[in-house]
Amino acid sequence: MQLGEYCMPTTVILGVIGSDAHVVGITILDQALSAAGFDVENLGVQTSQEEFAAAASEHDADAVLVSSLYGHAEQDCQGFHELLAREEVDVTTYIGGNLAVGQDDFEQTRTTFRKLGFDKVFDSETAPEEVIRSLERDLGISTREAETDRVQA
Amino acid sequence: MQLGEYCMPTTVILGVIGSDAHVVGITILDQALSAAGFDVENLGVQTSQEEFAAAASEHDADAVLVSSLYGHAEQDCQGFHELLAREEVDVTTYIGGNLAVGQDDFEQTRTTFRKLGFDKVFDSETAPEEVIRSLERDLGISTREAETDRVQA
Amino acid sequence: MIRDERLTADELQRIDERIRDDWPTGSAVDFEEAIAYHESLPAHKQFADVLESADRPLLQPRAGVPCLDDQVSLLEHLHGEGAADLLPTTIDSYTRDNEYGKAQEGLENARESGDATLNGFPAVNHGVEGCRELVDRVDAPIEVRHGTPDARLLAAVTFAGGFQSFEGGPISYNIPYTKEGSLAQTIEHWQYVDRLAGAYTERGVTINREPFGPLTGTLVPPSIAIAIMLVEGKLAATQGVRSLTLGYGQVGNVVQDVAALRALRKLGNEYLRDEVCVTTVFHEWMGGFPPDEARANGVIGLGGTTAAIARPDKVITKSPQEFQGVPTKEANAAGLRTTRQLIDMVVEQDIVLDGVDEEQALIERETRCLMDAIEAHGDGDVAQGTIEAFESGALDVPFAPSDAAEGAVLPARDDDGRVRIFEWGELAMDDDIKEIHRARLADRAETEGRKQSFRMVADDVDAISDGKLIGRPTSDTGGGRDGGETRAD
Amino acid sequence: MIRDERLTADELQRIDERIRDDWPTGSAVDFEEAIAYHESLPAHKQFADVLESADRPLLQPRAGVPCLDDQVSLLEHLHGEGAADLLPTTIDSYTRDNEYGKAQEGLENARESGDATLNGFPAVNHGVEGCRELVDRVDAPIEVRHGTPDARLLAAVTFAGGFQSFEGGPISYNIPYTKEGSLAQTIEHWQYVDRLAGAYTERGVTINREPFGPLTGTLVPPSIAIAIMLVEGKLAATQGVRSLTLGYGQVGNVVQDVAALRALRKLGNEYLRDEVCVTTVFHEWMGGFPPDEARANGVIGLGGTTAAIARPDKVITKSPQEFQGVPTKEANAAGLRTTRQLIDMVVEQDIVLDGVDEEQALIERETRCLMDAIEAHGDGDVAQGTIEAFESGALDVPFAPSDAAEGAVLPARDDDGRVRIFEWGELAMDDDIKEIHRARLADRAETEGRKQSFRMVADDVDAISDGKLIGRPTSDTGGGRDGGETRAD
Ligand code: B12
Ligand code: B12
């Protein structure tokens, strides 16, 4: 899949929020998204809300992908969407990883983060491929959609 | 512990009921009970109710120990105590092993077998030592009781 | 006098007709029509092909419940959630005793109450139609696993019912499973089963046969198990069986288990005719399990690791609920997945253990001693030789409940945890081999500062359920099943 | 410029006073009084003694919850039901960031709501009294486990609070745990921690220190981990630490893991001064776990087996719920018991694996390359050498989130599942060693019929959670996390 197949490059911001240092997941996502033709701005671990917002506006991003593994996601994301609104950043927002402390039920977790403003919430069983497919759908990238349909038909 | 320490030899009948062939448990029990000074009449596996009753009356037994591992104990023991009563065999009866099919709650199992007439019901975590202690108590073998108290004091 | 000779077509037919009268469902058995049914089965339900062409150890659990629908969903669960490669149908104990009437009662009770009043699936009572419905509805090969000394009607019904694999044998389903059956009789009965399997095989429908390797499951010395596998393999081959899966039950010492599986495979190929395709099956620990699922998972883990190193063709898995009773389907599937994870993580590793070759050589020599003794006892006839060898104690199985075996042999672990023989009885074994065992056990006795005695055997029987491999004496007598040390002496 | 020199008494005191002002509980720290408290502890709570005199691998889980009573019952459960030999107290993430205010908020929330709003025990907030209450109420030695780059106040409070073991180090709690902290700074901070431990040690209260061996937990080549253990050991020893437990995280290849633990022990004794008592700790697989408890038990099983063969002094266990989130106390205890069962079944067996010696020799040579490079970079000073070596990329850690490391090194498994280096960056390694890795990885690439690429690395990262050791390409893209193969190229 070459970049050229998109009408215009799709930019996604990727990072781990709060003081979380789990880097492996975003490393894998970065690689997979880049290979699939996305422009990935990887902010790395321990990224603050402000850094996410600044990067999104600076790169005129289409989507912001927030990762959190260590169990403090809920605290770390309080007010994030208000901040984005204040900064007039209008992007699709995803959050994924291990979002709750302990052995929680994922449906409950999903509700919590949807309420916080995220467009989609992913658990830690999410394969990079699902993220790509979902971004294509949500950002209306039709070339790939069509191709996918062909492939799956 | 020598036989002589008992006032008179205590005879126990041991066997596996029904068509159950699990022999290891009774082999261990036989050895431990014999070593502890009991006269053990080991009928082996696949012993019928009639064989238990006949052996008990023939040897003028003090106790009958019924073992069952394979999950059909309840069916196999139906009417056993009625048979003993008919044959006028008045003994202490124990049953032990894996008494129910599946992952049952032991308290329920105990009730079932107490209702069938067994004086005591043992699960498969029972160590031979517990059986010996329990027989001593139930058959009123005081020499060993006293010694036990000393040992545990 | 029973001899290791192939039943004639007439004999087969005569027995066939007689046996089918034992229970009404027998009359539905029709050989020609059954061949056609088997031919209609898709490739992925052909047991022998799937097993013999696999490139990694296949997993199979044990499982059987009385009612058909329940058995279907149980097997579907084990196939789906447990990713079992091969499926079982374990038969209930009444059927094993040929008490089809009692099994019927249990089945009807189960149908009414919904309770599992039988400890397995009464295949004879379900009949040819019931068996085929099971085979049709479940999407993997299924084996009949049982423990039936006289399995003739069971074989007739289940073979016609579409099963293509059948566990057991005249020794392995006699000695550990019954008190009174004579070997002459079980050999005769299994000649029919094997001949019937042979008859299907000759028509292109391979029936896989699997002698039951673990025997009493309790510290069985490898050479004894292997000798019995070879005997049953030979008897089956004579009757025309061409797909044989020889079994072995884990003893827990990794080197000994790997050596034993290699010896089993090697001797199987050597002792059995060329036309027979020999595969091996490894049973995860068949003795007493820890009364704790977490610890039981440790036992299963060791089984998986050993399987990954030894690479048998098939592994029979245990569940973490083994101690307690028949496992839930979830626990059964969990045992499969724990095993699968271990095998798949280890099987690609090149693990070569020191001492396997020596142990394998020892096991092979021991097995040859036993096989030679059988040969000599029977004047070259393996059927007769086996009967006589058991009679004299030249062949024996520890903890055998059967009157047909001396049960004089007592095993104990050596200082490394390998199963050795402590009390030989009349077992036919060269003196220098006995000397090796004696020396190893003496080492252990010295380590423990106690004499070799039945107490040591008893401690070894409990050791794995108590959390260890070797039943060392403990000072701590508080802990459950190892109590008694101080008082029972 | 920071050098590997012992802090003077004055320096220690100055830092001590300053650091104690960071949070009110700091003021309760009194060295002399703390010595007296430690002296009052019974022998079975003396961490270093218990660990160093053990005759079998001791087990320790990870566990930390916000409130004191809960932490007590959690630890009691792990000690009682899990039979843990050594206990942990895992610290929350705010404390790791020195955000004691936020930790306080979390603690108060937790006290009110009963929810675990922190992912660990905020020991600084609980203060000296709180820590001592924990130590008093729990009947086994307890270690502080955390991940705090600047752990000075945490050390001051917890040492005074009666803890006698403290995990971490300037590299191992920097590189995997932070983005921005400089190594010069963390080395300075840990010199204080180690000096404080040394000061207690000199007064007869041995504080055990445990550098964090697994680093990023993700396919870390053994020699890199060992070199960092040696560096942290040397830095600690300079400050007077005399009880050091060097760590290593399982990679899953049994031969490589056994070899690595042996190399760690050997090099630890060689590189560290004679006065230091070196022990080793083996961490069960620290990378991504399968999202399934049964499969996770398989991973834990392999950890236990490996530990039984390698016989480290201590094993840090995982729970079957590792994938999902912080485990329940029951699952945590189950992980302990599964591990215990495996170790106790295998540890008495004499298991000698082919190829361990060669692999160990390779690991030692690699480690020496790295140690020589550090020596050279620092002109003989290990503190300076480490900083410079990371700066130049001569020393590096795969998947390091920290700006202080190049993070250029990429590992991949060879055809046998051993972790090799696929992308070297500037790592200081002799060419012939690189050639060995290259050849092994070429074998794998050939087996798989694909080129070495980041895709292979990514597949290896997911492999164990997907149920395999090696991330082979699969045709089946349906199954969860291994999707993407066909489309992301
Ligand atoms: C490796 C690891 C570590 C390493 C991390 C090294 C590093 N710097 O990356 C080390 C050992 C340092 C570590 C430290 C800690 N860890 Co940790 N760690 C893990 C572990 C075992 C694997 C994580 C991993 O790399 N997985 C592999 C990658 C490829 O998968 P992934 O991260 O899940 O990412 C995938 C998906 O989640 C998804 N995804 C991720 N983010 C996003 C974002 C979006 C938008 C989308 C769509 C998808 C998505 O796509 C990714 C690719 O498939 C997990 C448990 C597990 N999963 O098995 C625990 C785990 C995440 N850690 C945990 C904890 C508590 C910690 C510590 C706080 C405690 C401690 N004991 O020290 C510290 C935190 C330090 C810090 N400041 O962050 C907990 C979190 C608990 C919770 N959420 O309830 C876990 C679950 C372990 C546990 N059961 O307790 N850890
Ligand atoms: C070894 C074994 C076998 C061997 C038996 C060899 C032999 N002839 O002895 C073989 C492989 C042949 C076998 C066969 C079968 N088995 Co089996 N077997 C076991 C196993 C693994 C260990 C039993 C054992 O020897 N334990 C060691 C001894 C020392 O302990 P014990 O028997 O429990 O006895 C102690 C206590 O229970 C107690 N005790 C026992 N009896 C009594 C009596 C009294 C009065 C008292 C006070 C105490 C007491 O004291 C003993 C000493 O400490 C158990 C599971 C387990 N426990 O781990 C399954 C188990 C008992 N078997 C089971 C089953 C179903 C069978 C089969 C029906 C099915 C099959 N798959 O083939 C057949 C039955 C055949 C038959 N006709 O009996 C089930 C029973 C299920 C249930 N009750 O719900 C079990 C629990 C396995 C399981 N989870 O499914 N089995």
TrEMBL record, chains A, B:
<dbReference type="Pfam" id="PF02310">
    <property type="entry name" value="B12-binding"/>
</dbReference>
<feature type="domain" description="B12-binding">
    <location>
        <begin position="9"/>
        <end position="142"/>
    </location>
</feature>
<dbReference type="GO" id="GO:0031419">
    <property type="term" value="F:cobalamin binding"/>
</dbReference>
<keyword id="KW-0413">Isomerase</keyword>
<dbReference type="InterPro" id="IPR006158">
    <property type="entry name" value="Cobalamin-bd"/>
</dbReference>
<dbReference type="GO" id="GO:0016866">
    <property type="term" value="F:intramolecular transferase activity"/>
</dbReference>
<protein>
    <submittedName>
        <fullName>Glutamate mutase subunit S</fullName>
    </submittedName>
</protein>
<dbReference type="GO" id="GO:0019670">
    <property type="term" value="P:anaerobic L-glutamate catabolic process"/>
</dbReference>
<keyword id="KW-0846">Cobalamin</keyword>
<comment type="similarity">
    <text>Belongs to the methylamine corrinoid protein family.</text>
</comment>
<dbReference type="GO" id="GO:0046872">
    <property type="term" value="F:metal ion binding"/>
</dbReference>
<dbReference type="InterPro" id="IPR006394">
    <property type="entry name" value="GlmS"/>
</dbReference>
<dbReference type="InterPro" id="IPR036724">
    <property type="entry name" value="Cobalamin-bd_sf"/>
</dbReference>
<keyword id="KW-0479">Metal-binding</keyword>
<keyword id="KW-0170">Cobalt</keyword>
UniProtKB/TrEMBL annotation, chains C, D:
<keyword id="KW-0170">Cobalt</keyword>
<dbReference type="InterPro" id="IPR014714">
    <property type="entry name" value="Glu_mut_E_C_dom_sf"/>
</dbReference>
<keyword id="KW-0846">Cobalamin</keyword>
<comment type="function">
    <text>Catalyzes the carbon skeleton rearrangement of L-glutamate to L-threo-3-methylaspartate ((2S,3S)-3-methylaspartate).</text>
</comment>
<dbReference type="GO" id="GO:0031419">
    <property type="term" value="F:cobalamin binding"/>
</dbReference>
<dbReference type="InterPro" id="IPR006396">
    <property type="entry name" value="Glu_mut_E"/>
</dbReference>
<feature type="region of interest" description="Disordered">
    <location>
        <begin position="465"/>
        <end position="489"/>
    </location>
</feature>
<feature type="binding site">
    <location>
        <position position="322"/>
    </location>
    <ligand>
        <name>adenosylcob(III)alamin</name>
    </ligand>
</feature>
<feature type="binding site">
    <location>
        <begin position="145"/>
        <end position="146"/>
    </location>
    <ligand>
        <name>L-glutamate</name>
    </ligand>
</feature>
<dbReference type="Pfam" id="PF06368">
    <property type="entry name" value="Met_asp_mut_E"/>
</dbReference>
<comment type="subunit">
    <text>Heterotetramer composed of 2 epsilon subunits (GlmE) and 2 sigma subunits (GlmS). GlmE exists as a homodimer and GlmS as a monomer.</text>
</comment>
<feature type="binding site">
    <location>
        <position position="289"/>
    </location>
    <ligand>
        <name>adenosylcob(III)alamin</name>
    </ligand>
</feature>
<comment type="similarity">
    <text>Belongs to the methylaspartate mutase GlmE subunit family.</text>
</comment>
<feature type="binding site">
    <location>
        <position position="177"/>
    </location>
    <ligand>
        <name>L-glutamate</name>
    </ligand>
</feature>
<dbReference type="GO" id="GO:0050097">
    <property type="term" value="F:methylaspartate mutase activity"/>
</dbReference>
<keyword id="KW-0413">Isomerase</keyword>
<dbReference type="GO" id="GO:0019670">
    <property type="term" value="P:anaerobic L-glutamate catabolic process"/>
</dbReference>
<feature type="binding site">
    <location>
        <position position="96"/>
    </location>
    <ligand>
        <name>L-glutamate</name>
    </ligand>
</feature>
<feature type="binding site">
    <location>
        <position position="176"/>
    </location>
    <ligand>
        <name>adenosylcob(III)alamin</name>
    </ligand>
</feature>
<dbReference type="InterPro" id="IPR016176">
    <property type="entry name" value="Cbl-dep_enz_cat"/>
</dbReference>
<dbReference type="GO" id="GO:0019553">
    <property type="term" value="P:L-glutamate catabolic process via L-citramalate"/>
</dbReference>
<feature type="binding site">
    <location>
        <position position="62"/>
    </location>
    <ligand>
        <name>L-glutamate</name>
    </ligand>
</feature>
